[in-house]
Design brief:
Elements lengths: L1 H5 L3 E4 L15 E4 L2 H8 L3 H6 L1 H20 L7 E6 L5 E8 L2 E7 L11 H10 L3 E8 L5 E2 L4 E5 L7
Length: 162
């Protein structure tokens, strides 16, 4: 794993936690730096991904994470990346921290979003209080929708729109 990380092929996404939150899982997530390479190594083509939605979801999460990292590199203030998971299985795929404020991004390989998709974002929001800026569920739909107090469903395609 160290060799793959030094070759920029594998990246650890550390967990977000504070000392007062002892009920969190503190194991890092692993992301390959190139989803095309991941598909080649797995022998997965478009038909395979269409048939295996769990695999598609994992690769989509990695793809979006890498895109968020690229876009964050344009910011004047540094952005650090983490993930959030507690022992009740509430999770947030990507937690962005900058200037002491946090935002969460959940990535869904689905064309619909429900209130249940915001479970992890709500837990993160409760854990960090007023440091929480916004929570977003990126999904494969076409409309932006509010799910209350700083929580939004946003199409993945908005990552590339001005």
């Amino acid at each position: 794993m160290t060799l793959l990380a030094r070759l920029f092929l594998l990246e650890e996404l550390p967990p977000w936690h504070s000392n007062r939150l002892s009920r969190l899982i503190k194991t890092p997530k692993l992301h390959l730096g190139d989803t095309g390479l991941a598909c080649a190594l797995l022998g997965a083509d478009a038909a395979t991904l269409w048939a295996d939605r769990a695999l598609y979801g994992q690769l989509l999460e990695t793809f979006v994470y890498q895109e968020l990292r690229r876009q964050a590199s344009w910011q004047e203030e540094p952005v650090t990346f983490h993930h959030y998971r507690d022992k009740e299985a509430a999770e947030v795929d990507v937690v962005l921290e900058s200037g002491g404020q946090l935002s969460g991004v959940e990535i869904k390989a689905s064309a619909t979003v429900t209130a249940a998709d915001f479970k992890g974002l709500r837990k993160l929001k409760d854990a960090v209080g007023n440091r929480f800026v916004a929570g977003v569920v990126l999904y494969d739909g076409s409309a932006v929708a509010s799910f209350g107090d700083g929580l939004f469903a946003v199409p993945i395609s908005m990552l590339w729109e001005i």
